[in-house]
C-alpha cells in the first residue's frame, strides 16, 4: 500500500505540473465573463475586471496524497492549491471554509508580500478527502506594483467620495492587490462609500500609488418592483417602487436565482407567479430586474398592464412572507417552500406555484399544501362584486392570508400537510392566516381594529363578520361562540380575535418595532408575538384544538423567554373565554393561581 501511494502521489504531481501553465491566466479574456462596465456616482464610467476563472470538476473526486488526509481544511486546501497551480505557499492565503453534509468548501486568495489579492481567488470543494471541484483565477505577477503605498488612504478619501457621490462609511480600509485587464497588478486602498439617500454602496479600489479609482464593487444588486408594499393592505393605499426588498439572509441568491438558473421574470427560488400556465410570466420591464407595471383598477384585471402588475405584486408578497417567516423559523429544515434548499435541510423542489387571476373560481382564493418536497399552490381569484372586477392580487391581506396556510400546514405536525384537517384545527388555520395578515399591516404601537378583504368587495366592513378588536362591543366573539359555528372561516374569526388580543397585550407591554420583519432579535411586542406564533406551530400536536394551541403558545414562551409572558398570555386568552379550564367550547375566564 505504501508503495502504491507513493507511486500515485508522483503521478498526481506530474499531472499537476503539466497543468500549471494552463491555470495561470491566459492573455486574452472573454469580456462577458471577466468584465462589467458601469456608470457610477457622478457620471464616472468604470470597467471592473475579474481575471478569468478556470473551473474543473472531478466527478467522484480527485484522490489526494495520503499525507493530506490528517490536515485541517485550511492546510489541506493551501497544500492542494499550491501544488495544483505550482505556486509557493506564501502566495496562497486561506480565506474561509465550512462543512455541510454534502462536503467541505474552502476559499483562498492569491497573496504577494503578505498582501491579498481582491480579484485573484480560488475555491476548492472536498468530499471524503477528495477534491471534487476547483476554481481559480490566480494571475501572474511579473508586472506587479510595489507593495509600499506612495499615497495614504486618508488622502484619497475626499476625491473618492466626490467621484462616487457618497461618504466613506467608516468601515476599516484595507490594502489589496488588484489584477488589471492589461496583465499588470495594482496596489489599492479599498474603501467603502455609501449614500444613504440614493441607496448606493460601493467598495472603491483606489490606486495606492496614483490615487486614481481603478475599480468598484457594487454591493447593491438592484431589483426594482412596483408593488403594494407589505405594510399596505389594499390597492387604494398606492403602489410604490421598491428597490431591493429581498432579504439575503433568507434568500441568499435573491429572488431570481435558484443557484442554477437566473431569471428576468416572476420565477425564482421561492415562487413562480404566473397566469394560466407556468410559461405565462411577467418579464422585467427594463434591464437589471426592473418590474415597473402600474395597476389601473378602472380597467378590467386583464387589461392594460394589470396582469403584469398582478403577477409582480403576487411574486413580491410571497417572497416577502418567505423572507420574514424564514427569520422567525420557517426555514428549509422547518419544511418551507423553496426550489433549492442550499444544503440547509428539508426537501427542496417545492417553491410556491402562484396562479394569479386564476380561472377556476371567483370571489375567493385558496392555498393547497402537500407535504414538504411538493410545491404549494396558491390560486388567487378575481372578485365580481364591483362594476369593474377587482383582483385579489392587489389586496395584500389576501395573499398573506393564503401564504400563511402554507406556513401553518407545514409547521404543524412536521411538514406532512395533514395536520390541520379537523373542523377546529382548520378553523384555527383560517384564524392564523388572518392574524398574520394583520401582523404585516399594523404600523405602530397604536393598534387599530383590523378588517380583512375590504377592497375586493368594496365594503369597509370587509369579508368577516366583525373587525378584529380588543373592544368586546366591536368584536364579541368568545371561545364559546364556536359551539354555534360550523364553518372554518367563522371559527377562524374566533381564533384570530383571540390572537388580536394577545398581540395587543404584547405590543401594549413591549411596544412596536418597525423593523420586525428583518430584525427578529428585538424585544418589542410585535417581535415577541411572531416568535411565539411560529414557535407554537412547531410545538402543537397534529390537529390541535383551541386549548392545545393556547398551551403551545404558553410553552413557546417558556422555551424562548423563560415564561416571562405566561400571565400576560393567560390573561389575554382568558379575556375571550380561553382561560384555565376552558373545554368543549365552554368559556373559562380563570388564569393560573400564580398570575
Ligand atoms: C423565465 O426565465 C427563465 C430563466 O431565464 C426561462 O427559462 C423561462 O423561459 C422564462 N419564462 C418566461 C415566460 O419568460
Ligand atoms: C430576459 O432574458 C432572456 C434570456 O434569458 C432574454 O432573451 C430576454 O430578452 C430578456 N427579456 C427582457 C425583457 O429583458
Ligand atoms: C416606472 O415607469 C414610469 C412610467 O413609465 C416612469 O416614469 C418611471 O421613471 C419608472 N420608474 C422606474 C424605477 O423604472
Ligand atoms: C391611533 O389610531 C387611531 C385610528 O387610526 C387614530 O384615530 C388615533 O389618533 C391614533 N392615536 C395616536 C396616539 O396616534
Ligand atoms: Ca421544502
Ligand atoms: Zn383561508
Mean pLDDT: 90
What is the annotated CATH architecture of the largest domain?
A: Roll
Order of strands across the main sheet: 3-7-6-5-4
Fraction of residues in helix: 25-40%
Taken from the alpha-carbon principal axes, the silhouette is: elongated
**What is the quaternary state of this protein?**
single chain
Bound molecules: 2-acetamido-2-deoxy-beta-D-glucopyranose, calcium ion, zinc ion
Query: How many independent structural domains?
Result: 4
Low-confidence stretches: 1-29
Secondary-structure-based class equals alpha+beta
What kind of sheet is the major sheet?
A: 5 strands, antiparallel
- Indicate the CATH topology of the largest domain: Elastase, domain 1
Please compute the radius of gyration using only Cα atoms: 29 Å
In whole angstroms, the N-to-C terminal distance is 72 Å
Number of extended strands: 22
Contiguous helical run count: 11
Strand content: 15-25%
CATH C-level label of the largest domain: Alpha Beta
Amino acid at each position: 500500500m505504501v508503495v502504491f501511494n507513493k507511486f500515485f502521489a508522483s503521478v498526481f504531481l506530474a499531472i499537476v505540473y503539466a497543468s500549471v501553465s494552463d491555470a495561470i491566466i491566459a492573455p486574452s479574456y472573454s469580456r462577458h465573463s471577466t468584465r462589467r462596465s458601469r456608470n457610477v456616482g457622478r457620471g464616472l464610467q468604470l470597467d471592473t475586471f475579474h481575471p478569468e476563472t478556470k473551473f474543473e470538476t472531478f466527478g467522484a473526486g480527485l484522490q489526494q496524497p495520503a499525507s493530506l488526509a490528517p490536515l485541517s481544511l485550511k492546510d489541506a486546501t493551501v497544500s492542494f492549491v499550491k501544488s495544483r497551480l505550482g505556486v509557493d505557499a506564501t502566495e496562497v492565503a486561506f480565506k474561509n471554509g465550512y462543512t455541510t453534509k454534502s462536503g467541505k468548501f474552502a476559499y483562498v486568495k492569491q497573496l504577494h508580500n503578505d498582501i491579498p489579492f481582491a480579484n485573484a481567488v480560488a475555491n476548492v470543494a472536498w468530499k471524503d478527502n477528495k477534491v471534487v471541484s476547483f476554481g481559480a483565477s490566480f494571475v501572474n505577477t511579473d508586472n506587479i506594483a510595489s507593495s509600499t503605498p506612495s499615497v495614504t488612504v486618508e488622502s484619497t478619501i475626499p476625491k473618492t467620495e466626490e467621484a462616487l457621490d457618497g461618504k466613506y462609511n467608516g468601515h476599516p480600509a484595507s490594502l489589496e492587490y488588484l489584477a488589471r485587464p492589461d496583465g499588470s497588478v495594482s496596489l489599492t486602498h479599498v474603501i467603502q462609500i455609501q449614500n444613504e439617500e440614493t441607496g448606493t454602496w460601493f467598495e472603491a479600489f483606489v490606486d495606492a500609488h496614483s490615487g486614481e479609482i481603478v475599480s468598484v464593487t457594487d454591493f447593491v444588486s438592484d431589483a426594482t418592483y412596483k408593488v403594494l408594499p407589505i405594510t399596505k393592505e389594499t390597492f387604494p393605499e398606492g403602489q410604490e417602487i421598491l428597490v431591493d426588498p429581498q432579504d439575503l439572509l433568507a434568500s441568499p441568491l435573491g429572488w431570481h436565482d435558484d443557484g442554477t438558473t437566473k431569471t428576468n421574470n416572476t420565477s425564482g427560488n421561492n415562487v413562480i407567479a404566473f397566469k394560466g400556465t407556468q410559461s405565462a410570466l411577467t418579464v422585467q420591464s427594463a434591464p437589471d430586474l426592473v418590474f415597473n407595471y402600474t395597476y389601473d383598477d378602472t380597467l378590467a384585471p386583464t387589461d392594460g398592464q394589470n396582469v403584469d402588475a398582478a403577477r409582480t405584486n403576487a411574486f413580491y408578497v410571497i417572497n416577502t412572507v418567505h423572507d420574514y417567516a424564514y427569520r422567525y423559523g420557517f426555514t428549509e429544515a422547518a419544511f418551507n417552500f423553496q426550489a433549492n434548499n442550499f444544503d440547509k435541510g428539508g426537501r427542496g423542489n417545492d417553491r410556491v406555484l402562484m396562479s394569479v387571476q386564476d380561472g377556476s373560481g371567483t370571489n375567493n382564493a385558496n392555498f393547497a399544501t402537500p407535504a414538504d418536497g411538493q410545491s404549494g399552490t396558491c390560486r388567487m381569484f378575481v372578485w365580481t362584486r364591483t362594476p369593474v372586477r377587482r383582483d385579489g392580487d392587489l389586496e395584500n391581506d389576501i395573499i398573506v392570508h393564503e401564504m400563511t396556510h402554507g406556513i401553518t400546514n407545514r409547521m404543524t405536525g412536521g411538514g406532512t400537510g395533514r395536520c390541520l384537517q379537523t373542523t377546529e384545527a382548520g378553523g384555527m388555520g383560517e384564524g392564523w392566516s388572518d392574524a398574520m395578515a394583520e401582523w404585516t399591516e399594523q404600523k405602530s404601537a397604536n393598534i387599530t381594529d383590523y378588517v380583512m378583504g375590504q377592497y375586493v368587495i368594496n365594503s369597509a366592513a370587509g369579508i368577516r363578520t366583525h373587525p378584529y378588536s380588543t373592544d368586546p362591543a366591536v368584536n364579541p366573539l368568545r371561545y364559546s361562540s364556536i359551539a354555534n359555528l360550523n364553518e372554518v372561516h367563522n371559527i377562524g374569526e374566533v381564533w384570530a380575535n383571540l390572537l388580536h388580543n394577545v398581540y395587543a397585550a404584547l405590543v401594549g407591554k413591549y411596544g412596536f418595532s418597525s423593523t420586525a420583519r428583518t430584525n427578529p432579535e428585538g424585544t418589542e411586542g410585535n417581535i415577541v408575538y411572531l416568535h411565539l406564533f411560529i414557535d407554537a406551530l412547531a410545538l402543537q400536536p397534529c390537529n390541535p384544538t383551541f386549548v392545545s394551541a393556547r398551551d403551545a403558545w404558553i410553552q413557546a414562551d417558556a422555551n424562548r423567554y423563560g415564561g416571562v409572558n405566561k400571565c400576560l398570555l393567560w390573561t389575554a386568552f382568558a379575556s375571550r373565554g380561553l382561560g384555565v379550564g376552558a373545554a368543549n367550547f365552554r368559556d373559562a375566564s380563570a388564569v393560573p393561581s400564580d398570575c
